[in-house]
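User: Batch of two.

Assistant: Item 1 of 2:
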Amino acid sequence: MALQLNNLRLPAWLLPATWPRTAGQPETARLDIDDGIVTRVQPASGPGEGLDCLGALALPGLVEPHAHLDKTYTRRRLGAITPGLLGAIEATQADRAFWTPEDLRQRASRALGQARSHGVTHLRTHLDWWSAETPTAWQVIRELAQDTFFHLEQVALLPLPLLADKTVVQRIAHTLANDTQAPRSVLGAFIHSSNFNAQALHNLLACAAEAGLDLDLHIDEELNTAACGLATVARAATAMQFPGRIVCSHACALSTYPEAQAQATLDDVARAPITLVALPATNLYLQDAVHGRTPRLRGLTLLKEARLRGIALLLGSDNVQDAFCPIGNYDPLSTLQLAVLSAQLDDVFDTWSQTVCRADWLSRAEHGADLPGKAAHLTLLHSTDPYSWPADTARSVLHGEHVPEAFSTYLRGLA
């Protein structure tokens, strides 16, 4: 069964530079879908051909680049928490006693269901790995990954001091690289000024390269101008010609640097194989958090400055309803909506929407942003206005060739 979607408005970043424009705006497109694959994207054809989408906005499947499925949905059982990152870590450590396979499976399954309902097709989760032994959550999520609809990746989130012993890093890296049941494994670490260890960081980079693993790092999640994790990783990765991809999440400290230092650090990042992930919800909630005091600082990394340098940049939900953030629902469009306000973004649909779509920026294999030849996973937005979107995040999710009834109903309301 074939499907033609005519008069869809796609974002500029998803279209070739030669795509026709009117008044500076990309013209609408026609998508041909056959056997669940997008076979062709071309400028919209005349009336009567395929389903007329009447200029509705559309995106590819959404990406959730940074989640914590082992911690999620635990806030209700944690009680009072000391404000800030370290208080959240302390509360989570106490909660680990309840992380049985059944508990983890129930909470993670709920999270995956939420993500799928919002149109997520690629999700990467960090899983606490606090000793040399494989944690229970790793096996539970690995089992869920076998049955889930979308591309699910697992990151071993290690405390940096554990990696001071190179044999420990080598053993864990070997475990991940040879885990045939979890082939989408990534090596990670929490890098903070409170635990910084240059030798451990060197071991992490060297062992990841040796094992053929990508890296995904929690880095400089603080407002300390002395934090140097991002700059150190960027320079080391360039010097050693790191062969994979390094995802660096948070980088809050970058917003506190003197201007010249911040710009120089971003120049280093631009030269390295690094993707930055900003996490507006958790950073707004945790950074500059003091009991009884309104925060003065946002804690957001430098999104606009990174984009100007061509640095790959994504937005993530991070923690959802746990010690680190009491709200959230695994909706990338809600994350983007929050970023629009907190980072004062404009041209959101045509430019910044790629921060919730570019799953290729998570890996060394950059497949590009084109649709033809890829599975027909589309986020059909209930909006025709690229200027005010995402004021309303309503959408229908298309997988294959079946047009959701909710989208058909929306189109009838436009006619």
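Item 2 of 2:
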Amino acid sequence: MKTLNLFFGFTFLCTLFMGCTKDENDKEKIVEITIYPETGYGASMMSDIWTQPLLFSDNDENQVKLLVDIITDGFDFDYERGYEYKFRAKKVWMQEPPQDVFSIKYEFIELLSKERVIINDSEENINLFVSSKTVKFTPDYPSEYVDEENITPKIYDALNVKNTDSDNWMALTKIEGFNYETGYEYVLKVKKITQAEPYSVKYVLLETISKENKN
């Protein structure tokens, strides 16, 4: 029994030492994080269902990214589209991150500011490329459910589109005036209408520039 106790004690010390070593190897830096007033589109590594992740950047990289599959500790706030948020946070490069997440995590320190930056309604004409295949999509802003108990999220077969001037894909449940046919790729001229209060975005078809059968 004494030998067994010594074994468990040794194992505990080894585990503790390894944990300390791991923590000591984690690189840390204080950064400023910006959460942007409009959300993006994308899916987690473990899912094929698209959602609307927040868009963020930190002043260490200055690169706008989707806030998905990234650990965030202590960021307890109610996000509102149309507002820009700035936080001070600890950025940690984890030497041994959990599976299926990125190796960087952020730990909340303080909220620096919350500023409403989309204050005026706006319209712009853009060209959208529409893929021949749809994607599974569940909205987050606002969330939609198939029942009144708010248990099962509603999942759409959404249009997979991108601005022809951008590489950022979107999942749209509707383009007003557009009748989509599966298997066809389109280039559409649309009007993007942004309403500031309450925040909303919609797309209205102006012209079908091209339609190509991809089957």
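The chain has one helix and 13 strands.
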